[in-house]
Amino acid sequence: MLTLLGVFNREPMMPAPPQLLTEPFLQLPTVNSVQVVWFTEFAGSQHAVTYGAGLKQTAIASTVKLSRTREDRESHVGAQAETGQYQNIKLRDIWRHEAKVTGLSAGVRVPYRVSSVREDGTTFSSGEYTLASLPESGTPLKILLTSDHQLKPMTAANLQKVVETVGRVDGVFFAGDLINIPDRASEWFDDNRGGAFFPCLQGRAKYEIAKTVYRGGAIAQYAPIFPAIGNHEVMGRYGSGDSLGEEFENSIPRAIAKKLYPEQTETQTEQWLKDRSFNTNTYEEIFTLPETSPGGKTYYAITFGDVRLVVLYVTNMWRSYNLTPDVRGKYQERQQDLDRPEKWGYGQVIFGEIAQGSPQYNWLEAELKSQEFQQAKYKIVMFHHPPHSLGDNIVPAYTDPVQIRDRATDGSLEAVRYEYPRAADYIIRDVVPLLETAGVQLVFYGHSHLWNRFISNNGTHFLETSNVGNTYGAAVGNKRRKVPPGNNKDYVALGNPNGLEPIVPTIAPLRGEDDKPQPYIASNDITVFSIFNTATGTISSYRFDTRFPGSDVVKFDEFAL
Questions:
Q1: Where are the beta strands (DSSP E) in 80-167?
Q2: What is 461-516 written as a DSSP string?
Q3: Residue 110 in 3-state DSSP?
Q4: Residue range 246-264, pLDDT digits in tens
Q5: Distance of alpha carbon 179 from alpha carbon 274, whole angstroms
Q6: Cα separation of 205 and 182, whole Å?
Q7: Which of 103, 108, 163, 135 is nearest to 224 (CA)?
């Protein structure tokens, strides 16, 4: 708590934003080094980390300009509300600085701070924090399990309570959906509603609930973040909309992009194709991650203390379940677009191919046989899309949409529909059996904005702890999923469609109106976080009721791997 207050005291008292766009955050530790990253809105010079006793050692940073960060009329940034400076999509110049701090010893935390010199010669510095190299096997760690921040109302409160409850964490496993629109710069850095991504994770947020202002937690300055790609880290066709939201929603499969753009030839680059289908450019530019897999930064594995963490790219395009004729959704194209395939959405497009035989599946199969994985005390696999959930987003199945074209007797196109056979769900059919056979102890994921967990017959735990900012509810009782009528086999309206029963929390479950303990938390008032303690092998989940700012944080569930 004292550390967190210290960070608050370092914040400038003036109304202008700090000249460093972020405080530093840590990435990709090795046995004797760690990467330190921060951002500015000026190119500047002499970007450096000073560290060690007396901050007498220096690591010079390399600087790159982000290529896709932009703002638009839907941005909440600066004086947008008064001046409307972003009525159209406009590039926003942001520079990323990264320095490698070397010569570190295992288990020894070292003080550091970063500084940048603006073009006018003014130097701007961060607060002073501590960093460490990759923890050795046997090191007791506290790891935050989180996802689905998305600038949601309870995120700042959630992260503040993490620090107040368990102190400094040693790492963050983030199961996707960091923000909403990945190319909208303000969502990462300085959304003026007070809940942007980095401010929340660095104790610099300012979000009010029930007349209490929450600052988030000073977490990323001290602990490396290991993220997975969620659907909100993926942008659609570049330059294809009048707003960044329209561009975000305008994703199509790579194979369709090849057909739609006749100018495409064998000489066109991979980026050319991504720009015409979907891309993760900004996400990949912001984070420093292992790049040893065929997918580069999109999926990877790393050993962190006693944990072998395998991060997969398993997510798809969220589209509306609405079946009215004017909706381009999961199950249909809009009636007005039937004669314009370039306007089609092609259903719930899969971004991360994971079916058996795909490059990612083959890499995963090899990783699960690797010495690093086999020898790890704790084997954890993290991705975004749920294999087991009471939430809405598990339906339809994680499989390629099957397109059906309904035609009239004269051959004219009456409808374009999409089906998702549950038997072809790539996660359940292909991935989960592989993970269970390999002895994975925990599968961690998000996407549905609730807390629930499951355990398979062979002891694999499945945890969804994504009730961080808001929820869309759990499909239990009278709350049914909105699914197409007449196909109960593929579209399950209640419960977990993939069979496992949810586990009732072991310590202090919430109770329903019938006074029975509920095996989930789905609330827009109660927020949840989970901590993995590698010393004991336990995962503890905590809840905090934002309606009562002075109330205690309650540990409501705990289980051991």
A1: 90-91, 95-101, 110-117, 123-125, 129-131, 142-146
A2: EEEEE--SS-----S-TT------TT-TTTS--SS-TTSPPPPPPSS---B-TTSP
A3: strand
A4: 999 999 999 999 888 766 5
A5: 20
A6: 19
A7: 135
Angle at 373 between CA 380 and CA 529, to 5 degrees: 15
Is-contact 216 153, C-beta < 8 A? no
Cα distance between residue 524 and residue 509, in whole Å: 17
Q: Give dist(CA 338, CA 403) in Å, integer.
A: 13
DSSP code per residue over 215-260 = ---B-TTTS-EEE---GGG-B-STT-SSSHHHHHH----HHHHHHH
Partners of 302 in the β-ladder:
309
Dist. CA 162–CA 203, nearest whole Å: 11
Local structure of residue 71 (DSSP, 8 states)? E
Measured CA to CA, the distance from residue 502 to residue 238 in angstroms comes to 40
Q: Is 185 helix (H, G, I), strand (E, B) or coil?
A: helix
Task: Look at 2-16, 176-190, 278-292, 545-559 and tell me which has the smallest mean pLDDT.
Answer: 2-16
List the structure tokens of 429: 């059919």
Reported pTM:
0.95
Half-sphere exposure of 345 (CA within 13 A, CB side): 26
Spatial contact of 172 and 287, defined as CB atoms under 8 Å apart? no
Residue 89 and residue 19 in contact, taking contact as beta carbons nearer than 8 Å: no
Nearest to 365 by CA among 430, 461, 292: 430
Average pLDDT, the chain: 94
Residue 17 has pLDDT above 60, yes or no: no
Q: Is the peptide bond before 549 cis (omega within 30 degrees of 0)?
A: no
How far is Cα 167 from Cα 219, in angstroms, rounded to an integer? 9
Q: What residues form DSSP beta bridges with 404?
A: 417
Q: Which residue has the tokens 């370039």?
A: 342
Among candidates 470, 516, 476, 515, which has minimal Cα distance to 495? Answer: 476
Residue 524: C-alpha distances to residues 245, 279, 448, 488, 528 (Å):
24, 31, 13, 29, 11
